[in-house]
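Quick question, first post here. What does this chain look like in 3D?
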Amino acid sequence: MPLSHLLLALSVVFIWGTNFVVIKWGLAEFPAFLFATLRFLLSALPWVFLFRRPAVPWSAMARAGLLLGVGQFGLLYWAMRQDISPGLASLVVQSQVFFTIVMSMIFTGERARPLQVAALALAIGGYALVAWHSATDPAAAVTLVGLGLVLAAGFCWGCTNMVMRSVGRVNMVAFTAWSSLFAIIPLMLISLVVEGPARMAHALAHASGWAWLAAFWQAAGNTVFAFGAWGWLLARHPAVTVTPMALLVPVFGILASVALLGEPLPPWKIVAACLVLAGLSLNMYAGRTGGRR
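> Answer (accepted):
Ran it through. Tokens below.
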């Protein structure tokens, strides 16, 4: 991979990792479901007028939009209000990898390789360590509710992966933009019921420029640029060359949260991160060796 392409890949995973801090900044002024509504509104408009609708069924885009919007980001934002720190959220949401593997085994008949089973065991050990401290340590920066919500968000992300696999090779930026349309109204209705119209109106009227920039960055930075650049790289290099870079997402997430938000980094959190990252790495290695066979 040329140096310029390597730097582009690093910029993408840097954006995806540090975005957990940006989410926390946005949640300081916007209620969670309103913030998610703004994210998907800005992910859809004006991009649906710039990208042609992918040649996939409307039902697939609706499933992806609901799972990604209400499921993944709705639950993630709700948890990140006060129940989990950005660094831990960036780590725990990577459970989507293992949820995707399990669903692939159930619905497509794929067999788990021994290395993948070992990878899952390592990751479960890391999540169990987080759960133990969330239940016993008041200073852990995570509660059992927060852990459960982010694991549920990871499950919804895994379900979205299955939907995206079913549509085949399409322009993922266009697919994300068009599927975002289906997330807007459900998220807005949830915000109206859970957060109330008065709180929504107050947040919209009094949000600072930084809060609006955080909302805009969710769409422009994470969706249009990052997804577009990642797809561009995958079209030019083997997946086994590009995808390992994604292991840096939780690394950047944890380091950014420590540096910018002062998130504590006790030894148990480092051990949990190492276990999960080891599981992700081993799973990726298993995928590479399986592909060669």
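The chain has a mean pLDDT of 87.
The two ends are 24 Å apart (CA to CA).
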